[in-house]
Structures are given as C-alpha cells and as structure tokens.
Amino acid sequence: MPLNIVQRELPGWGVTYGPSGDGPFPAIMLLHGSEGAWAGWSHRDAMLFAAHGFLAFPYGYSSGGNAWNAGHIIDYPLDRSVEAFKALWEFQFADERVGLYGLSRGAEQALLLASLMARDKIEGAPDAIAVHSPPDVVCGAFDARGFRDAGDPGWQAWDVSKRAWTWQGSHEGLLPTTPIEIERYPGPLFLSHGTQDRMWSVEMTKRLEQRLLKHGRSPEVHYYEGEDHIPSGAGQNQHFELLLGFFSKHL
Description:
Layout: E1 5-10, E2 14-19, E3 25-31, H1 41-51, E4 55-59, E5 72-73, E6 76-77, H2 78-90, E7 94-103, H3 105-119, E8 128-132, E9 142-143, E10 165-166, E11 189-194, H4 203-214, E12 220-224, H5 233-250
Parallel strand pairs: 3-4, 3-7, 6-10, 7-8, 8-11, 11-12
Antiparallel strand pairs: 1-2, 5-9
C-alpha cells in the first residue's frame, strides 16, 4: 500500500514529514518545548500537519539527552535556528512560503526569532508564526537533569546564573524577564493559551495580545477555556483545527 505521508531528509538537519509526490508543499518548521528533541511530540505534530498537505520539519534544538531523558536548553545559539529555517526554505520540496510553529519553550524561541530578525533586518523571516502557551518574557535556562515537580523534596528554582539563549554570540537583550518585542514582527501571528495553564499563566498571552494591539498589530488569538499547558484530546482537536486554518490561509 502506498504511503500517504512520507519522510524526507533535510540534508544536514533531520527528517521532514509531508504528502507523497513531488510538491512543492507549504512548509512549517516546528520548535519543541522543554520536553526536548527526543520526546517525539513535535514529530507527532509534524505528522498531523503532513496529513493536511504541509511539509513539516520538527527541528530538535535541545542539547544532550536521550530517548529516556530530555536534554537541556542552555546557551542555545538562536542563529542556528535561522540557518535551519533557511535550509527548509531552500529545500526542493518546500513551497516559497514557510511558517514557524512553537510550543512552550519553542513558542518563546519562535517569538524571539521573529523579534530579533525584524530588529536586525535579517532577510528570510517566517511568512506566518503560530505559538501555543508562550511566555511574554525571556525565560531562564532549563536542564532536565535538575527538574523536579513542585512539592518534590528536590525541587529548586532555575539557576538564575544560566541563560537559555544567545544571539550572535551574546546574551545581550536575552536576560530572563526581558520582554519579548514581538510587536517588531509585521507578519501574521497566531497566539493560543489554555485558561487553566498551571505552568505558564495565560496572563502572559494576554499581555502579548495587548502589546500587539497597542502597536497596531492584529494577531489571531484563542483562549481555550479550562485547558492546561498541554490541551486535552478535545482541546487538541480545537487547537489543530484553528492552527491548520491559520496556516492554510497564510502559506
């Protein structure tokens, strides 16, 4: 039986998922959260995009880890994500319009990439960006080896001396609690958040929305009533229907 979804190697970067055939297809780069590249959730989401006609590239940017343990997000060079995005844009199966989708820490990274590329006038910015459960400020470094649930005797706050991101070899402008200047990005933007998110408050997305409106932007914003940081099954259905509609419209 022929496959409806096929895997293709993006040379030097990893696997993509997309419809069978020669394409080109509207493309999306996916950015995972603190679960890390090995967890596989971004690959699941890529398959969902592929089933609806998109070429999806789940980019694993976390360092270390393995199939049983997440890696870390410490001093990750955001410039490398710009290179990965350019590689997808140049891929022979990708159409001329390419989007970006991030979840949680991946949402933070997507917003940072958009604001930094716009600020520094770097060509090749995403044609449309969607983020779920985003923060509105830069967050600290994350190392899964030290993570404990709240209430665990070993729980401790993040090490404030460590940084998650670098840009052009520097932490400047990327210190924790620094507002993410997403209002610099002029393209279509999708924001979503569960109203009962216990990890990152929905107030973060509300602040992003208000700042964007203040600067004359018109983001597409969705609040999922009663949903946590990761939506339930019904919430996932609602989220992906809206997400696919957004990318179908803009890519």
